[in-house]
Amino acid sequence: xxxxxxxxxxxxxxxxxxxxxxxxxxxxxxxxxxxxxxxxxxxxxxxxxxxxxxxxxxxxxxxxxxxxxxxxxxxxxxxxxxxxxxxxxxxxxxxxxxxxxxxxxxxxxxxxxxxxxxxxxxxxxxxxxxxxxxxxx
Length: 137
Description:
Blueprint: H1 2-15, H2 20-28, H3 34-37, H4 43-61, H5 68-80, H6 104-118
Helix pairs in contact: 1-4, 2-5
């Protein structure tokens, strides 16, 4: 969970003005972060999220428009005047992809499941065979 919060935090810290939909989602679901506020493991990253929510919520309180498009417009306008130094900076997140010995064991079934579920083509599930039941040696 901390990694998810760190990713959200990084998006807010480094490119808040490019993430109005994220801000909108945080405002709509702000109560999700209540449980993390008092937990010592998450307090530092939740603090930045709360700062953003408080700032944009105060901008919404000053407005009479609370339609989805109205709220999104307020977020866009408020993000332009967002002081970039308000959030605590954390070390930049770095992720490294480490390839498994046989990545096809994950990727082939995953890609085929995407094709099966998202392609719009009909596949008879009883006729789909990705792997033979007998192993060839």
